[in-house]
Amino acid sequence: MAFFGFKELDRLSEVDMAIYRFFTENVEKVPYMRVRDIATEAHVSNSSVMRFIHKLGYDSFPEFKVSFRSEQRRSQTNDHEISFITAENFPPDIYEKIELIADKMEQSDQIIFCGIGSSGALAEYAARQTAAVGFNSFCVKDPFYPLITQLKNTSNNLLITFSVSGKTIELIEMLNNFVNDEDVTLVAVTADPSSQLALMSRYVLCYSTSQERLAKYYDLTTQVPAMYLIEQLISTARRLAVEQDHESI
């Protein structure tokens, strides 16, 4: 019988309830305690603890501890997976925006994905996947790359930039070259819709996530929401391209 989610509380005596509450309030340390330690801290007898263990359906205390620890780990893993990314990570109109930008991708002559650090890795992945489904795309991870020179005398470019904060100075300076360029449409993928990156872009795909840093310099913020947006963009753009091909037949 599982301990977590035990529903037959009406079968428990006052002493059993005291032990049950102790377990639920000390889930981290119970697997490492002895029967007498639990009895002492729960203010019950050793025999009361063992009767409670047997009432839960376990033959021995070691069997209970193994099961308790296993349940605890599964519970923590499931909670993490469920909350890792949900609809709450995105604004209500996110799919309308994805459809709009995917349509721009399908119409563009060239798609440039840009980012630095972990966002640069995302940009590289996006460029590779986009090229794999038939779009003309490449990635820029160096903010000092002479992109303005490369895009000179070109038109109908879509520049998609990834940045969690939307405040990376080097990216902002590079994109400033294209703010008023009619041949380059700027798209921001960021967790901050009020950031400078978002404000200077024509289209914004935003998401919410807790930003985490280690020693102020190492960004440990999850990129799963941004990765989800990449997959949705590519899938939608591919669908639109197929629909366009069917219409032209």
TrEMBL record:
Q: Which GO terms describe its biological process?
A: carbohydrate derivative metabolic process
In alphabetical order, the GO MF annotations are: carbohydrate derivative binding; DNA binding; DNA-binding transcription factor activity
Q: Which domain of life is it from?
A: Bacteria
Q: Which PROSITE patterns match?
A: HTH_RPIR, SIS
Keyword set, alphabetical order: DNA-binding, Transcription, Transcription regulation
Q: Name one Pfam family in it.
A: SIS
Specify whether Cytoplasm is a keyword of the entry: no
The name under which this protein is listed is: Phosphosugar-binding transcriptional regulator, RpiR family
Protein's organism: Ligilactobacillus acidipiscis
